[in-house]
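Hi W.,

Here's what went into the run:
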Amino acid sequence: MSVIEIRNLVKTFEVENNKIVALDGVSLSVEKGDIYGIIGMSGAGKSTLVRTINYLEKPTEGTVLVDGVDLSKLRPAELRKMRAQIGMIFQGFNLLEQRSVLGNVCFPLELAGKRKQEARERARGLLKLVGLEDKEKAYPTQLSGGQKQRVAIARALATDPRILLCDEATSALDPQTTTSILKLLKEINERLGITIVIITHQMSVVTEVCNKVAIIDGGKLVESGSVDEIFASPKSDAAKELILGKEIRYVPVEKIETKHAIRIVFKENSAYEPVLANLILKTGQPVNILKADTRNINGRAVGEMILGLPEDGQTKNTIIGYLKETGLIVTEVSENEYTSA
Amino acid sequence: MNIQVLNMLLIGIKDTLYMTLGSVIIGYILGLPLGVILYTTGKNGLKPNPIIYRIGDFVCNIIRSIPFLILLILLIPFTRFVVGKSYGSTATIVPLVICSAPYIARVVEAALNEVDTGVIEAAKAMGASNIQIIFKVLLVEARTSLIAGFTITTGILLGYSAMSGTVGGGGLGDIAVRYGYYRWQTDIMIITVVLLILIFQIIQMVGTKVATSLDHRKHKGN
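Here's what came out:
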């Protein structure tokens, strides 16, 4: 049974008599132990989607099942109990500013009616887990962004949830802090077996920690599956844009006039072979490297490259044929897909 | 200065403090829940309810638009009904409370509106009930603004209690009116004014100090 099962979710908002469709028939399922990335541009509906998982946002249509329980069937008190089983962290950390670090982590335990002493002991253990045991007396304003998010994570874990929802949890952090927070999330996932759902607009977040990904565009789920698969051969325009386009930090290659370009993705074994050198030696044809990058996908280095090919149709086919033979994933890309930086 | 005048001034101070603190405390007993209700039923509140909000909003606006001195006179029958007479410091507390409660409600509503909605959302996500959010999140996170509002309200009520002196309200204002205005004893009037200024300063100072010392957003450094 899936930990989270979302079926045909529709959410519309009324804003001054205008109907805005935030989610349009989204279905997805998250399995136990997944780190599930939900990615999309801002305004795609991903934040609304994550808020339906704990019913902070009630869907207009469709069902949300958590551990097989239909959230729409729960009474208010039961829903609150269910929410306590689902931890959540936010982009803005949302810590209680008038409470100390320890007080913040104790907060959900107090809500659940735990005794103070018991709550404190548990909170101290969690602060140790997130590496902030020496900060328990500090107040949120004295902490850096990364430290605040660690406190928020400790707080979210206090009630022993089975699911952790992360709503743009790293978007307000610098790249280094982002990496350390993602590492912590992965650790929590592996050590405590907590299923994690990550909402983000950064592809790098997905490739670093997620094993599955869903791409949301204009309120619709356009593609979902394992990160490996989607990264290697994105099918939808939104996925291509997220993987190829926006994150390119190189000088745009508009000046190079290439009609034919292909994207190749190196899997683990092929990354050690001198594929390009062999290609050139074998075909005697020049190829133009338009972009090259390696990325860390779930701890494995995966390379990608965009090559510009000669005009001649037959040579092009020979090259593609050769590359496929060596076990690479080859996809043709159109010019605007890799130059839209 | 003879002992009689001194005695009168001491009683004046006592009455002034009695009226001010009495009305601010009763005012908060009524105004604080009313402010929480206004916040909760408001547009972005925990349980928006346009009907309750509009009624509360309307009543607050009506009372607040009546000048205090007129309210004081308008309420004479009601005051007589509640405390048995319409003059003296206990009687003055009645119109002071009626006048301050809607004001306090507004101050509380504004303070609660300042609380970051993200924090409220986080509490909801942790399974907090609305009552828990009000007592454990809103009133705690907003306490600095609430105390600042309390200080301002107390200062205003001190001024209003003095104003009630014109209709026999008791306290320092009463002394100032009787001696300064009717008897032309300017020296006594000046003393009462100085005393009022002193009391006001003390209220403001204590209020600010308590508010800052309870505010953990400003304690910088490790």
